[in-house]
Amino acid sequence: KQAKLGRPVSPHVTIYKFPITALTSITNRVTGVALSVGVTSIGAMSLVGADVPALMSTIGDITVIGNLAKFSVAFPLVYHYMGGIRHLMWDRMPEMLENAKVE
After folding, report:
1. How far is CA 62 from the centre of its chain?
2. Distance between CA atoms of 24 and 22, rounded to whole angstroms?
3. How far apart are CA 61 and CA 67, in angstroms?
4. Surface-to-core class of residue 32, CB atoms within 10 Å of its CB (0-12 exposed, 13-18 middle, 19+ buried)
5. What is the Cα–Cα distance from 7 to 100, expressed in whole angstroms?
6. Dist. CA 25–CA 18, nearest whole Å
7. How far is Cα 24 from Cα 86, in angstroms, rounded to an integer?
8. Residue 102 above 60 pLDDT?
9. I need a labelling partner for 51 at 20 to 30 A (CA). Which of 5, 13, 33, 41 fits?
């Protein structure tokens, strides 16, 4: 439709190469949402009377599921924390925030 009207048509977003800073920023946001949902879920379970420590202990005792559960908590927590440190460094030293240096 836009081409018929003589208007320029934007290329699709899939042809762009995202810079590493954009990918890490998106991942940082996703891990933040995952942590928020996880903490809210655990809090809600506690409020309705679930024995959360026993549940977490039971999940942790199952080898495959326990390792996956531990990783699914540890990775977002560490990644989000390190992303926060990165942003603090960029706030303190904005000269570091150049795509040529970050990539």
Report:
1. 26
2. 6
3. 9
4. middle
5. 33
6. 11
7. 10
8. no
9. 33
DSSP the chain: -TTTTT---PPPGGGSPPPHHHHHHHHHHHHHHHHHHHHHHHHHHHHTT--HHHHHHHHHHSHHHHHHHHHHHHHHHHHHHHHHHHHHHHHH-GGG--HHHH-
Is 79 within 8 Å of 28 (Cβ atoms)? Answer: yes
- What distance in Å separates the CA atoms of residue 37 and residue 43, rounded to the nearest whole number? 10
Joined together, the tokens standing for residue 52 give 């959360």
